[in-house]
Amino acid sequence: MTASEGSPNLFTILPSGWRAGVKFLGLVILSFLLFSCEAISYYSQAARGQLMILIGRQDIKILLDGRDLPQDLRDKLELILQIREFAISELELPVGDSYLTYVDVGREHVVWNVFAAPEFATQPFSWCYPVAGCLAYRGYFSKSKALAYAEQLESEGLDVYTGGVDAYSTLGWFDDSLLSTVLDRPDHQLAALVFHELAHQVAFAAGDTSFNESFATAVEREGVRRWSKSLNDRRLFERAELSLSRQSDFVALVTRWRSRFHDLYESDLTDAEKRSRKCALQSDLRAAYQLLKDSWQGYSGYDAWFARGLNNAQLSTVSSYNDWVPAFEKLLEQEKGNLKSFYGRVAQLADQGASVREKALRRLNSLAVEAAL
């Protein structure tokens, strides 16, 4: 078969352009220059996993030209191209050639992230990586390897949480693809995913997970609002707003209870007493969620999350993605909704030192709280 008929060759396996190919080769070489065997093993699996994504890419426009494409997949591929164009024209996001290809990864999730935290602390551990800096998770393309690493951390007495990830951003190193793991999402959630991942290419502060994820979440939420309004689809807009409202309620609930856990850990109680109170707080949090769920008319979208252990590592995943969302929304308001100006100010924050950046975000968060009163 020729390349045009779908057989992979060098130019379909590697990202478009020789520079991106060199980047990938550099990542592979880098994985073997690290000092420990464990590090070599970890970076090798990451390189292999990303390579398999690149090998599996199929051009969406070519797929749409085919006659045998299932209608549900055709609808999603057409939708992703529409969302992509909106991201370019209305959100001024750096799309490049992202989301022009589709990959069937053949499994439930593309990556599994492992989070860890001390038994009596809400602050998660972090792992440091080339380019990305220090992040509050360790990702694996294999579920079994993720679970094995999680078991190792648990044996050291840590709180551990492992969660499947359906999509991720390569921060512009590669052209991101639409993955099969996200196809079952409602239209507004698929749009949210694209806007979120593209936002990581606008501004990225190495090692600052809360900054990066909160910014991307703020862009995602604003993007979904604008996109649903642009379609003049009242029902879609209402579904999107309801989803955002529930997400905000969920985040607020977990954030409040995380503060209670923090207060417990900072107390003068013995470890045995803290352990007992910790279990009680976890039960109380589940009860509080049931009350929140009742106000949602029984919506069960977060049931699986609350069915887990609710340990410190799990609670930390919510804080990482949402701590500074009010600050970024306030910043966008200060720029009168002008996304270009907003992105510029965020990029300036990303370039500043961590302490200066945090001070500015705390000030913006305070202004957001004051405005809400």
What can you tell me about this protein's structure?
By secondary structure, the chain is mainly alpha-helical. 60% of the residues lie in helices and 8% in strands. The protein contains 15 helices and eight strands. A hairpin with a 3-residue loop joins strand 4 and strand 5 (133-135). The longest helix has 32 residues, at 234-265. It starts with 9 loop residues before the first helix and ends with a helix.
Quick summary of this structure?
This protein is mainly alpha-helical. The chain has helices spanning 10-13, 18-31, 37-55, 60-65, 71-89, 143-155, 187-199, 209-230, 234-265, 271-295, 303-306, 312-322, 325-334, 339-351, 354-372; strands spanning 58-59, 101-103, 111-117, 127-129, 133-135, 138-140, 159-165, 178-179.
From the helix content, strand content and strand pairing, which structural class follows? mainly alpha
Strand coverage percent: 5-15%
Number of helices: 15
Instruction: Report the span from N to C terminus.
Output: 65 Å
Q: Please, what is the average pLDDT?
A: 88
Strand order of the largest sheet: 1-2-8
Task: Indicate the radius of gyration in whole angstroms.
Answer: 21 Å
Number of strands: 8
Helix content: 55-70%
The gross shape turns out to be: globular
Main sheet: strands, sense, barrel = 3 strands, mixed
